[in-house]
From TrEMBL:
Cross-referenced InterPro entries: Ig-like_fold (IPR013783), Ig_E-set (IPR014756), NXPH/NXPE (IPR026845)
Protein name: NXPE family member 3-like
Origin superkingdom: Eukaryota
Gene3D superfamilies registered for this protein in UniProt: Immunoglobulins (2.60.40.10)
GO biological process annotation, one example: nervous system development
Organism: Triplophysa rosa
Pfam families: Neurexophilin
Length: 222
């Protein structure tokens, strides 16, 4: 429903560079301690509507300059007394340096804050997971209905969302499927041993699956 030009523009806007090789040493990841930022050509005064540029130079935990981009920084201009703030637009130069343009929308004092949200190495790890469709959260489905001799029975089984066109959790014909008419989301539940799919009552949250490796968890903590 969109033009090829619009599609290409969206793909370019969503593109996120990654390290050109897999990082296996924690010291090679971006360090918020050794990374620095500075305001380019800082003036004594500015006018409302002016812009200032902030340059970030990323370094790893060994104090070495980074040679690739992909870090997730947040840079903002703020004034606590006015309770005002504005975030900057980032340009990733793909060589370990970043430029942020900040608009000056109010009169008075302003401070600049730069924060490393996720290192490029952590982004690379997380990207591996969000591009796959493994079930991160699990759910429990409850079924109630008539059993032998008219006795009411209940069963609970594992359920999950059906992802993509084929579904990552699809298990052949062994599952019950339920489609939300508003969102068109499809749920799958293991077929109960005694009751049919028609006797589904509700489902609730179950376990949350942690897929991060010990090294990736270290990247999160650093």
């Amino acid at each position: 429903g969109i033009s090829q030009e619009e599609w290409d523009r969206l793909q370019k806007a969503l593109d996120w560079p990654s390290p050109d090789h897999e990082i296996t040493e924690l010291g090679l990841s971006t360090s918020p301690v050794h990374t620095t930022f500075s305001i380019v050509r800082l003036n004594d005064t500015y006018k409302v509507g002016d812009k200032i540029s902030v340059t970030i130079t990323a370094r790893d935990h060994n104090k070495n300059l980074k040679t690739y981009g992909g870090d997730f920084f947040q840079v903002k201009l703020f004034n606590l007394n006015l309770k005002a703030s504005v975030y900057g637009e980032v340009i990733d130069h793909h060589n370990g340096t970043y430029t942020f343009d900040l608009l000056l929308p109010w009169e008075g004092q302003a401070q600049v804050s730069a924060r490393l949200m996720y290192s490029s190495e952590l982004v690379q790890s997380l990207k591996k997971y969000w591009e796959t469709s493994f079930p991160r959260s699990h759910y429990i489905g409850y079924f109630e209905g008539p059993g032998p001799n008219g006795v009411k029975i209940s069963e609970k089984v594992e359920c999950n969302l059906k992802w993509g066109s084929r579904g990552n959790w699809s298990k052949g014909n062994c599952c019950c499927e339920y489609k939300d008419v508003k969102t068109e989301t499809v749920w799958q539940c293991d077929r109960p041993k005694e009751l049919s799919c028609d006797y589904w009552v509700y489902h609730e949250n179950g376990a949350v699956e942690d897929q991060l490796t010990p090294f990736e968890k270290q990247l999160c903590s650093r």
